[in-house]
Structures are given as C-alpha cells and as structure tokens.
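hi! just following up on the protien thing from before. the input was this:
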Amino acid sequence: MNYLHKSNSLTLLAALFSLALLVPACQDTGTTDGGTTPDTGTTPDGGTLDGATPDGATPDGATPDGATPDGATPDGGGGTLAPVALGSAGNFVILSKSGIDTVPASVVTGDMGVSPIDSTGITGFSLVVDASNEFSTSTQVTGKVRAPDYSPPTPASLTTAVSNMETAYTDAAGRTTPDYTELGAGEIGGLTLAPGLYKWGTGLSISTDVILAGGPNDVWIFQIAGDVTQANGIKVTLSGGALPKNIFWQAFGQVMIGTTAHMEGIVLCQTAVILGTGASVNGRLLAQTSVTLDQSTVTQPAL
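and the predicted 3d structure came back as:
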C-alpha cells in the first residue's frame, strides 16, 4: 500500500514536470516563424518594418511632398521651358531699328544690322561699303554690317529680321506660369539662378555678381516690365554647361550694362541697350530702338 502510493506520487510529479516544460513553447509570443517581428508592428530597438518609413518621414534620398532639392526648380522649370525662336534675327549679333553707335574702338564678332533707319544711323564704325553694295565692313566688326539703303536682297532680309525680332520679344513677354515671380523684389545680385521663367512687374537690378547654373539644354527667360541696370564691374556668369543662346532677357525698358560689366545671353529690348566703357556681352543685342557701345565687346554665342 505504501509502495503504490509512493509510485503514484512519482508518476504525478513527472507529469507535472513535463507540462511545465511544454507551456513556454505554447505561449503566443507574437513573433513570426523564426522569432523575428513582435506583434507591435515595430522592429527591435525602435526600428520599422522592412520597407516602411517612420510616420511623416520620407525614404532615404527623397524630398517631402511638394518640395524640391536644394538648387532645383519647381515643376515646369527650365527642363521643360522652350527657348525663344529668333528666326532670322538670330543672324545678327546686334540688330536695331533706330541706330548703332560706338565710341572706338569696340570689338563686335558677328553681323550687325539696322532697319528701318538707313546706314546713317550706324556711327563711330568708319564703315567701308563693299563692292557689291549689299553690306559694309568695319575694323571694329568681324562680320558684315547691313542697312536698308544697301542693294537687294539686303533691304528685304532686314525687314524680315526686324519682324522676327519683334515676334521673339512678344513670345518671351507672353510666356505664362512663371516659376519665380518678383524674386528679390527686383534685386538679383549675389544669387545663383536655376533654369526657369522669371517675372518682375518692375525694373531689375544686378548690384553684385550673378550665376546662372544649369545644363546645356536648360533655358532661362527673364520677363522685366522696367529697366535692367547692371552695376559697374558686375558679372553675370554661367556654370554647369549653361549656354548663352538659351538665356533671354526680355525688357520693356532700357538695358544698361555698366562700365567693365559682363552679361551673358540674348537681350530682347523694347527700348535702348547701353553698354558702359569696357563692358562686354556674350550673346546678342536685339533692340527696338538704339544700341550704344563704348569701347565694348559683343560676341555672338555658339549655336
């Protein structure tokens, strides 16, 4: 009797011990097969599930919704902006309706033209009329100088070029949905400007150096309701492969480039373009009134 009681007690203890071993293995720990992720939806040490980002965060390298990386332009910027078509006005480095004047000696690379004013509106260049009477030359100009009082086909070609210049001005002025409006309240000195369409309802001042940063296919169009005033010695320069043929300064007022200052791009001006002593332009000066040079350098851009 004592033996049976003792035997039963040992059997009961063994059963209880086995049950104790089984219980931890059966508990719901909230982990997936292999014991990886708890049921809380988080990973150990405050991490996130594979492929997920913390609440409100963006994946590595992305920007928040609606934002652009530093130096980038908003949607619709220079990458999709079409250049202004110049037509036959693009055959001239300087084209004017009322005259071109220089204080010698300036250096002009490319053809010059005036119309409807005749060759008497071109002063300071000591023109020499070619034997064909279709153009003249000057020691200050590497190219041909054309006027409507020269022989055909010069008069008709100038009429077309001036018309194309006016169309280009209207195109540039009529572009809609600017990427930047009233930037710097009309003062862009010291800025690095991304490609895009810029608009000001006033004049534009450039009091310190400006950089236009972009690639060879990027386009800048500046719509300016007043004058453009570039201070003496101040430079507009390009970086990243940007090209002056893709930069358009459309100004209703005068464009005044100060003494020894440097400008890049195509100037489409409703009124006068005035270059100070020793000023230089890598681009074109297309003016609906006059162009004045003072020992200045104007070089047509590569196409």
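The first helix runs from residue 2 to 26.
The mean pLDDT is 83.
cheers
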